[in-house]
Every structure is written in structure tokens, then in C-alpha cells.
Amino acid sequence: MKVVIFSTCVVDLVFPNVGKAMVEVLERFGCDTELPSRQICCSQITNNSGYVRESQKVMRNEVDSLLSIDADYIVGPAGSCVNMLKEYVVRLRDDPVYLEKAKVLAAKTYEFSQFLYYVLGVSNAGAELDATATYHRSCHMTRLLGERHSPYALLARVKGLKLLPLPNLENCCGFGGMFSMKEPEISKQMVDEKVDSVLATNAQVLISCDPACLMNIGGRFNRRGEKITIMHLAEVLNHNVDMSRVTYVKDDPLTLAEWPHDAGMTAELIKEA
Amino acid sequence: MAIAYSDKPFKVRLAESEQDTFMQKAVAKAQDAQWTKRTASRNELGHWEQWRELGQQIRQHVVRYLPDYLEEFADNAEKRGAHVYFARTDKEAAAYIRELAERKHVQHVVKSKSMVTTEIDLDQELLKIPGLSLLETDLAEFILQEDDWDEPTHIVFPTLHKNRDQIHEIFAKIGYKGDNDPQHMARFAREYLRASFLKADMGITGCNFAVADTGMVNLVTNEGNGDLTMAIPPTQVVVMGMERLVPSLKEAEVLDNMLARSAVGQKLTSYCSFSSVAATGESDGPTEYHIVIVDNGRMNALGGPFEEVLQCIRCGACLNVCPVYRHIGGHGYGSIYPGPIGAVLSPVLRGYKQFGDLPFASSLCGACTETCPVKIPLHSLLIKHREVMMNELHMDTGLNKVTYKALGLATGTPAIFHMGISVDHSMTALLSHHQEPTAQNYFMGDGIMSKLPFILGGWTVIRDMPRPPRAKDNFRSWFKQHKQLQEAGR
């Protein structure tokens, strides 16, 4: 199956390894990947700052670029950015041509862990990581995209990985796009509490499905001089892979493979559109 | 105290709240405790998402037909003998009640908790009357009053920022001789307040819901002071926001249920009362009953992009889940309506000049929208406020505006972006330095950036930033090589 990679600006700008890992995992499970070169950014950085009009061009560019290759699916490594692509059905609703394109885009776009787990049906990706880790559940992926299950299900089957519960996991890490730069006084207190929560678990590795949250939390860890290893879920699932360990959702009695169709606020928006 | 109670700039209030570590701990503890209680009480009810849809439908319906329901309620209340007054502004509302108190030669006023009376600054208006005594009888509001009218930090828990020792000090000033045990202090307050109910000649309450088809006022409280305020004084004043209506008792039942679970994690509050003028033959209840319906900016929202904010039932659940409120507390917002609902409502009521900072004080995490029992899309409304400020009112100026316009251009134009990622590594040479990082697998671009210029400086003032990788090592280049290798291998 053909999969278009939605790279996201954060991966393009600072985290190449996240993109590489995602491509390698997807190809391992039979995807033929493509990277449309004209894609740039989902537009949250400007749109959510109030520059809504200026963001329309950004969104239209993203729609045209990602749909420029006729693929079965579009997959991205960031819950928040993937959610924004889905929200285009609301944000581009005044433009009939782009509204139709946005609906096509929303229907075939997936966040990486959701795609791997629900679409490819992989429950154990064959990875091994001998470490203790905790998982940061990003806000937009959890609340807007409505995904609370797939990353945990995939992490639970990584050989050697001991996943520790993160206290107050429902609280935002303080990233919030330009909020992190516009309101550093507030953002600092939020990210400090997050760093403290991670430290309280004594985990060696912090994992998330949102590179921007990791950029925020990791940057604060480093500034405070505290030790941590930052990993995106794709990097974990691409670590020391042995294909003999691979299991699929349909054969795995432990998995709950129910697609959360009605979960998340964005699903409601799409339904209304 | 009016809606805005502080003239201090937002950044100054933030700095002050950051110093207030007691407040921060108290808020965090209350949020965590409420999380458990609220979730349990909602789960116990079952089908919470369907309840939310029902709550939303009821409130949207009322807002859509607001003029009709206001008329119906006013007619029915008047039939029961109440006087109904529509106040366009806070000043009109407060003046009406002051004139009433003067006309009736009122000596002693007792009040139960009401945000809208705080909004119209009623206490200070009434205290202008020589010789008049006024007492807040809700325990928390009583504490604030005795602390020289300290500002509330929460719409449901106004004294969240005070500990038992601070309250002990406040009570000592009015004759309390006991220790700092909350039970002992509450008993003292109870006795102190009881006497004032008996001598009061005017009672003032807020209104949780005004029931249109019966003309009655629904009040939910936990301390019983609301009922004493309603039952004893001969003259009764109810102050209500103009959107606070329900069609009938059926809808009041639904919303009371959701309000109690959302606000305090209870099935129902200890007292849930429906009041009006004393009927013939009734032994208690007011003989003169005034209902003051307050607009004070609410009409600004009707029919506009912020109309959904009028659905609010003032449960405060959005404050209890907000990670920003968790750290800056109520005083950080400088509005009697703090937290997510306050950041949406305050600019609607009082404009962007006073409250334009508040919609930006959010990471848009969506916890507020998720918990709201009547499904107000709070985080989306915050973005809407930002849009109005930037796109319609052009409130951003100078470098900020240029930066965002440039960002919009760069993220919307492939040629510019491609050029950017091909030179970003070399361009950041002077801004980067080498250091052994404590965050592993984070700095992929051979260097750390700790001091960035312009708006990016807001990032590096508290955190480090990975230097962008060399053009040949970025994701786009890797993917190209990767595909070439795949082709070659075929």
C-alpha cells in the first residue's frame, strides 16, 4: 500500500531521526512511502496565534501537497499536527473546493501509532529496548484526536521495556505552540511540573507521539541539567527489531482493537461537516 | 469589586503569582482532589457524554430564544408579586438596589454567594449608605470580606488561596479566640453569622437558574446560608445574569444535577431551593421580592462568534482542570471570572483593552472543553478571540506582526521553506555552542542553542533548543538518499 509521509515542520527542522524511524517502521510492515516535497506545516503556529487569514494559504498548500501523490493513506508522526489536518474540514469550510479536498484528506490521514495499530494491525512491532520509560500523553492527540490506547498497546509489547505510569499525565507540558515563547513565565511552571513528574518516575526514557512536546520537555530537562533520554514512539519501535517477535492485533488476545470512531472532539467536527 | 479588580499589567500579576507558592500548592491539591471526586460522581450518573449533549441542547435552546424566555420568566415572576428590573449596566443594577435599600430604610443586609453581585460591585455601592451594615454569609465570601474585601480566586471556591492560619488571623480580628482547627473556625463563623440573619431586613442572593414557566428562582448551596438569606429578611433581592434561565423545572433538574457533579463532585448540593414571594398563609419568605436581571455586556455575545459562552452554568470545572490556572491561580487573571471561562468571558464583557492578554494565556490543551458539562468549545473560542484581535482589530504591531506575517509566508511557500532548511544549520552557527547534553537523543544537529533572538528568545529564556541538522542530514535529504538506495537495490 502506498503511504504519503506527512513530515511536519518540527521533524523537518530539528528531529530528522523521528522521520527516519517512522519511515523505516512503516516500510518494514509493507508500506511504500512517498514524501511530497512541497509540504511544510499544518499552520497551527500561525492559526492558533490569531493569524487565521494568513494561515489559509498555509493550509491550502499543505492540502495540495499531501494530495499531490495518489496514496492510500497519509501518516504523520505528531498527534497534534495530524489532528490539525483533520480540522481543515472546519477551517477551510468557506472554500467549497478546498472543503471537498479537506474531507478527502481527513478521511485518509492517520497519526503514526494509530495507523500502525488499527490500520496495519500490528500489536508487537518486534522492537527491543532495555530500559525503564514513561509516556507523555499529548493533549491534542488525547483530547482532540481521541486516542488513548494505541501508543500504550504498542509500548506494552516492546521487549525489555518497563513502562512506568506518569503522575498527572492529563496535564499539558506547557508547549502550546507560540504560547511557549509568548508566555514563558507560565510555560516554565507547567514544563517544570512535567519534568518533576517524569523525574518522580525514575524512568530513563521519556516517550511521546508528539515531537513538539518532546522538544519542549527535553529542552527544559537539558536547561535544568537533569538526565533523560528523549524518544519518539517510532524510534522506540525501530530499536533492535527482530521480526520473529512481531504479532498482529488479530492474533493477539491481549489487544483491544476497537477503533475509537466516536472518540475525540475532532471526530465530532468532521461528522458535523 | 467590579469584573476587573487589578490595574497591574498582566506580566506583573504573573510574576506575583509565581511567588505565591502556597497558592500554587493549594490549587494543585484542590485540582487533583476535584479530579477524583468529579470523575467519580459523573461516572456514578453514567452516560456522561449524553448528559453533556442534553445540557448543551438545553442551554443553546435558552440562549437562542433568550428574549422569549426572559419575557415569560418576568411575566410569571410578576404574577407571583415580584418586581422585575432589567439593568443594562453594572451601575444601573447596583443603583437600583441601593435606591431600594434607601427607600426601605434598610439597616442590615445579608448576602449569600453570588458572582454577579461581585461583578456589579454591589457591596461597595450599598456600603455608601450611612449606617448600613452588610454581611457576606457564604463562609468563603465572609472570610474575604473580613480580610478587607480580598479578591476571590475561584468562582466556586473563592478562598482557595488562603490557608487555615491566614483564616485564623482574620477571624482573630473579629473576636475568635480558638485554635486553627477548620471545624472550630467554621463553628465560630456559623454563630457569628446566625445573629445577623435574624436582624437582617434585606437579603440578597444570586440565581443559579431562573425557571421561566413558574417564575421561581433556583439556588443551589451547601451551607444553608442561601436559604436563611431568602427566608428571613422581609425584603429580598435576587440578582441574576440575563442568560441564567431554564424553560421549566424539568431542565432545572437536569442542570442542577450536572452543576453539582461538575462544581463540587457531589450528586446534589446540600440545599437546592426554589423561591419566590411568600404566598398567602406562608409563615416565612419575603413580602417584597425584587429580581434584577443584569446585561452588563452579555448582549455583546448574543448572535456573535462568542454566543456559546452564554451557555455557561458557572460550575468552575474548567478552572479545576486548567494547567494554566493551576499555576497562576485566580489572581493571575485579574478578573473575578478567571480560568478558561474567564479568559473567554472577560474580554466579551469588558473588551480587549482590559482583558486582551487573557486569551493568549492558554496552551490550548483542550482540558476545559473536554470537561465543560454544557460543551462550550472553550479552547476554540480562545483562538477566536486571538483571531479577532489579530485579523480584525490588528492589535499586534511592530516586530511581532512582522514575525507572524513572515512565519505565515515561510510556512505557506515551499520555495522559501526549502531555502530555509538548506541554510538553517549554517545560519545558526553563531547562535549555537557545544556542551555535553543531559537530554540524550535530543540534539541531533551538532550543537545547542541557548540564546535566540526576537520572539524565539521566549523559548530559550527557559529551555534549550536543538540546533537544526546540516542540510545533508535533515529528514528531506535522508529520504531522498534512502529512496535512491532503494531504487539502486531493485
Automatic annotation (TrEMBL), chain A:
Molecular-function annotations in GO: oxidoreductase activity
Pfam families associated with the record: CCG
Domain Cysteine-rich residue range list: 3-86, 134-217
Gene Ontology CC entries for this record: cytosol
Coiled coil: none
Domain of life, source organism: Bacteria
PANTHER family referenced in this protein's UniProt entry, alphabetically: LACTATE UTILIZATION PROTEIN A (PTHR30296:SF0), UNCHARACTERIZED PROTEIN YKGE (PTHR30296)
This protein's name: (S)-2-hydroxy-acid oxidase
UniProtKB/TrEMBL annotation, chain B:
Domain of life: Bacteria
Keyword list, A-Z: 4Fe-4S, Iron, Iron-sulfur, Metal-binding
Database matches in SUPFAM superfamilies: alpha-helical ferredoxin (SSF46548), NagB/RpiA/CoA transferase-like (SSF100950)
PROSITE patterns given in the database record: 4FE4S_FER_1, 4FE4S_FER_2
Molecular-function GO terms, alphabetical: 4 iron, 4 sulfur cluster binding; metal ion binding
Residue ranges of domain 4Fe-4S ferredoxin-type in the record: 303-333
Entries under InterPro entries matching the protein: 4Fe4S_Fe-S-bd, 4Fe4S_Fe_S_CS, FTHF_cligase-like_sf, LUD_dom, LutB/LldF, NagB/RpiA_transferase-like
One GO BP: lactate metabolic process
A UniProt-annotated Pfam family: LUD_dom
NCBIfam families listed in its UniProt record: LutB/LldF family L-lactate oxidation iron-sulfur protein
Name of the molecule in the record: Iron-binding oxidase subunit
Upper lineage: Bacteria, Bacillati, Bacillota, Bacilli, Lactobacillales
